[in-house]
Amino acid sequence: MFRGLWTTFKSMFEKPVTVAYPEQKRPVRERFKGRHVLKRYDNGLEKCIGCALCAAACPSDAIFVEASENTDEQRYSPGERYASTYEINMLRCIYCGFCEDACPTEAIVLGDNYELSFTGRNQAIYDKNMLLEPVPSGGLPTPQVTEPGRFTRSVPEMKDPVD
Ligand code: SF4
Ligand code: SF4
Question: What is the topology of this protein in the membrane according to its UniProt annotation (predicted)?
Fold first, then answer.
């Protein structure tokens, strides 16, 4: 009995292993796969070209992509097309990262946000506005007006369309 009491008494002076969430948050591991983010280039153009390879790679059928044509007057991404609709059903997602691996432009990235809570099934469907990262400083929001012919190169050449 004394040994048991001693263990309890000792633990009163040990550093707590819990944290006061949500005021205090633990940093996630380097390879943590959290909520998806759609990335932009430094100039603000969206990296997603609406190819839907992420949707094809998804084992849970959680991604829906609809592509539309870019024009020089209304440009969202380099190249011919952009994702006019991009949705992820977070209730289906198993956070495997296959979408990230399949993406040819590194547009979709599983970030470090793990705070996903909903009060309705509809709220679990994250659309493009919710997924797209903010415009970087020095960049412009999309759609942009661009110089004719500047961004109609093929995908492998589009690594840095700002240059
Ligand atoms: S992380 Fe996996 S399950 Fe989730 S959307 Fe991407 S491919 Fe689908
Ligand atoms: S996120 Fe990547 S793979 Fe998915 S549609 Fe956009 S460019 Fe294609």
Answer: Peripheral membrane protein
Instruction: Determine contact, residues 75/142, Cβ cutoff 8 Å.
Output: yes
Q: 97: CA distance to ligand 1 center in Å?
A: 5
Q: Is the pLDDT reported for residue 145 higher than 70?
A: yes
Please state the pTM of the whole predicted model: 0.84
Q: What residue ranges define each of the domains in the chain, with the CATH number in brackets?
A: 26-131 (3.30.70.3270)
Ligand 2 atom showing the smallest separation from residue 52 Cα:
5
Top mutation candidate among 99, 108, 109, 113 for ligand 1, by most atoms within 8 Å of CB: 99
Walk across the sheet containing 81-89 and list its strands.
63-69, 81-89, 125-126
